[in-house]
Amino acid sequence: MKRTLAFLGTIALTVSLVLPAWSAEINGKIKSVESWSSNGRSVTFEDGTKIFVPHSHPAFDKVKAGAVVKGSYYEKNGEKIAGPWEVRPGGCPEGPPCPQ
């Protein structure tokens, strides 16, 4: 009985640590970019999704209204945080990278 409880406890702990690491996909056009804090920016997509982009994010300087984003985000403490993103200027088709 003790082994079963210890095993179930281990599984519960593992699941609670792994679930926050899962991410969701984002594929859309940026509607607006607000200065959210000194740590980064809040980005709102045309579908209403809001995602925080920290200053340390590799695509931070490319995040502008009208840009198209394909990537992921994760949730931490109820806040959506940008994961890996491919950012294209507005009107740039998919395929080879657009000139900057």
**Order of secondary-structure elements:** HEEEEE
- Helix/strand/pairing class, anyone? alpha+beta
Mean pLDDT: 80
Q: Which topology of one domain does CATH recognise?
A: OB fold (Dihydrolipoamide Acetyltransferase, E2P)
Please tell me how large the radius of gyration is.
18 Å
Percentage of residues in helical conformation: 10-25%
Question: Which percent band covers the strand fraction?
Answer: over 45%
Shape: elongated
Q: For the record, give the distance between the C-alpha atoms at the N and C termini, rounded to a whole number.
A: 63 Å
Strand sequence of the main sheet, in spatial order?
3-2-1-4-5
Descriptive account of the structure:
With 100 residues, the chain is an alpha+beta fold. It has a domain at 23-88: Nucleic acid-binding proteins (OB fold (Dihydrolipoamide Acetyltransferase, E2P)), CATH 2.40.50. The chain has one helix and five strands. Strands 3-2-1-4-5 form a five-stranded antiparallel beta sheet, with no helix packed on it. Residues 15-20 have low confidence and may be disordered. Strand 1 and strand 2 (40-45) form a beta hairpin. The chain is elongated.
Task: Give the helices and strands, then pairings.
Layout: H1 2-18, E1 23-37, E2 40-45, E3 50-54, E4 68-76, E5 79-88
Antiparallel strand pairs: 1-2, 1-4, 2-3, 4-5
In short:
By secondary structure, this protein is of the alpha+beta class.
Q: Top keywords for this entry?
A:
1 helix, alpha+beta, OB fold (Dihydrolipoamide Acetyltransferase, E2P), five-stranded antiparallel β-sheet, 100 residues, elongated
